[in-house]
Amino acid sequence: MLRYRTVPVTPFQQNCSIVWCDETMCAAIVDPGGELPRLLDEVQRLGVRLEQIWVTHAHIDHAGAVGQLARERQLPVIGPHEGDRFWIEGLPQQGAMFGFPPAEPFTPTRWLHDGDTITLGHCTVQVRHCPGHTPGHVVFHSPEAKRAFVGDVLFAGSIGRTDFPGGDYQTLVDSITQRLWPLGDDVVFIPGHGPESSFGQERRSNPFVGGT
Length: 212
Hints:
Blueprint: E1 2-9, E2 14-21, E3 26-30, H1 36-46, E4 49-54, H2 60-63, H3 66-73, E5 77-78, H4 85-89, H5 91-98, E6 117-120, E7 123-129, E8 138-142, E9 147-151, E10 154-155, E11 158-159, H6 169-180, E12 188-191, E13 197-198, H7 199-205
Parallel strand pairs: 3-4, 4-5, 9-12
Antiparallel strand pairs: 1-2, 2-3, 6-7, 7-8, 8-9, 10-11, 12-13
GO molecular function: hydrolase activity; metal ion binding
Keywords: Hydrolase, Metal-binding, Zinc
Pfam families: Lactamase_B
């Protein structure tokens, strides 16, 4: 079964998640935006073996420390979709703009596409391409654990911003209603910021996509 621990990082309080297979203790970090010493201390405390980096999208608070972590630990970078290539290349400029520590650009070991799967130990995670917040945004879904790591696509009571370059409101709404809702109302999602919720709860009450 896939387990996880969420650690908010950076001044933006981005929900970085450490995920692992509870049989093999193989682990991945989802969206290491910063504060690597804190994240690595948590990896050590959990007793898991870090093997992969997963990236939902390449905004600075989600990807700011990916390049450094990949280089220092020789880890493969999984994701996002190629649509976020320009965001990755612009990470140093993003960091300077928002006052983050210097960020290294990186080249993903594997670009992801809708319908792909990722293996972590004995766990298989499904990939959904969900553009709208960024063109290359992806979501990681574990059917067995009934959990989804959705980055900045969907929040408890809200949805992602669409006013950044490459963002589009209708595309984001379509991603949520066509790619996320079919995963099931009982799926709990871990957003990029703020508390967890479920797809069912958001279908009922979210003012942007409720009732869809």
